[in-house]
């Protein structure tokens, strides 16, 4: 991935450091806004995925970068606690997840895309989502070695579908490239990190925060469950919206696949994965619901910001 442009002093310091060989890097920022915070976190997290062009892989576990990341994560976690509250003990997690994901009071970005969005607005939507979809499933895979028993088997079952059962053309990451191609977008991994706002980066950073810390394994499962349990309806709307705009079968295959697959995944995620995990580790049940609440709240905030910009006749992307 090509390194993005800095959005403040912290992301600038990180990007400048990564351009060189590892050295005694140290930084303890006093203040940081959301754009700077989430770009800096995204840049640091990407070291654990496919990395950055020209960046020495030894930076991945550099103590100075890890110390900085820990401080930035503390700020992000504080924002999450303020948004949804801290994790609390919970019972009957499966039915609590069903109740959480059945709430339709949030902004309906999928409804807008289905019936009103222009071609350019749909391209913008796909641009935002490309940051996640071009590495879809990867953050949640971090949980596999941290689980055992039925919960692990359920997660693997979901992930196998996400990775197309080992068939390249059926990997969801690859399917989304077909959608991007139909929309005239560049399919290079991470191509649009520079133009998406902090709300988009925050959605992606949430997965990495949960995925890279064993202590948040329950939250990562709750995150995945919320994704799977709220996927079928919106993806049907996305597919129909793209067909309305002239998209062909290749363009809509990614969305149509999710309508079919996630109708099954939502049951596996709620009962077999999260239910089994909470029976094995009841002390982590509150973390599962916390992860679900976080992703739903951040997605609602992201959708509202996009719809607000479009209502004002503006682009939802950064210049």
From TrEMBL:
InterPro entries: Haem_Oase-like_multi-hlx. It comes from the Bacteria. Pfam families: Haem_oxygenas_2. This is Iron-containing redox enzyme. It comes from Actinoplanes nipponensis. The lineage of its organism: Bacteria, Bacillati, Actinomycetota, Actinomycetes, Micromonosporales.
């Amino acid at each position: 991935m090509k390194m993005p442009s800095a959005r403040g002093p912290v992301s600038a310091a990180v990007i400048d450091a990564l351009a060189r060989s590892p050295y005694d890097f140290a930084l303890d920022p006093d203040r940081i806004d959301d754009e700077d915070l989430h770009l800096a976190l995204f840049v640091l997290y990407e070291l654990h995925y496919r990395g950055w062009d020209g960046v020495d892989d030894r930076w991945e576990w550099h103590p100075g970068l890890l110390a900085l990341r820990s401080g930035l994560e503390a700020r992000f976690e504080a924002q999450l606690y303020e948004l949804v509250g801290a994790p609390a003990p919970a019972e009957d997690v499966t039915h609590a997840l069903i109740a959480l994901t059945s709430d339709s009071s949030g902004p309906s970005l999928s409804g807008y895309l289905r019936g009103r969005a222009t071609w350019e607005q749909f391209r913008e939507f796909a641009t935002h989502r490309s940051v996640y979809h071009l590495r879809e499933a990867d953050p949640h895979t971090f949980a596999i070695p941290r689980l055992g028993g039925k919960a692990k088997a359920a997660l693997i079952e979901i992930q196998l579908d996400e990775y197309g059962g080992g068939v390249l053309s059926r990997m969801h990451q690859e399917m989304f490239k077909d959608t991007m191609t139909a929309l005239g977008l560049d399919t290079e991994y991470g191509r649009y990190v520079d133009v998406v706002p902090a709300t988009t980066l925050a959605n992606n950073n949430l997965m990495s925060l949960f995925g890279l810390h064993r202590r948040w394994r329950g939250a990562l499962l709750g995150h995945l469950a919320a994704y799977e349990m709220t996927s079928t309806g919106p993806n049907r709307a996305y597919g129909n919206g793209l067909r309305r705009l002239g998209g062909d079968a290749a363009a809509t295959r990614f969305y149509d696949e999710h309508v079919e697959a996630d109708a099954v995944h939502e049951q596996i995620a709620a009962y077999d994965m999260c239910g089994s995990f909470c029976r094995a580790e009841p002390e982590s049940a509150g973390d599962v619901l916390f992860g679900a609440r976080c992703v739903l709240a951040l997605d609602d905030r992201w959708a509202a910001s996009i719809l607000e910009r479009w209502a004002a006749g503006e682009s939802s992307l950064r210049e």
